[in-house]
């Protein structure tokens, strides 16, 4: 993981909502969620290091972040950045009227 990636993870106020993934002993990916309200979460960052891309790790990390939000009562997840919008749209996120990428989660 790059220094900037480590700094953003280590600088997170709520490390309980930060996850890293290792691939063959190396940190390969990370994400950071923020809980805004009882049911609303924001995905503040998600990153897969260049050497580990195109292996499905980004999709796995996104799925994990959605599962973590759901387990904590989350019913909506917004993306705090606008890069890679097609990645999120292919996985069920849609744009709100304000242009924010959002996923609505329904309890089972």
UniProtKB/TrEMBL annotation:
InterPro entries, per database record: Acyl_CoA_acyltransferase, GNAT_dom
Annotated protein name in UniProt: N-acetyltransferase domain-containing protein
Gene Ontology terms, MF aspect: acyltransferase activity, transferring groups other than amino-acyl groups
Lineage per the UniProt record: unclassified sequences, metagenomes, ecological metagenomes
Location of the N-acetyltransferase domain: 1-108
Family matches, as CDD domains: NAT_SF
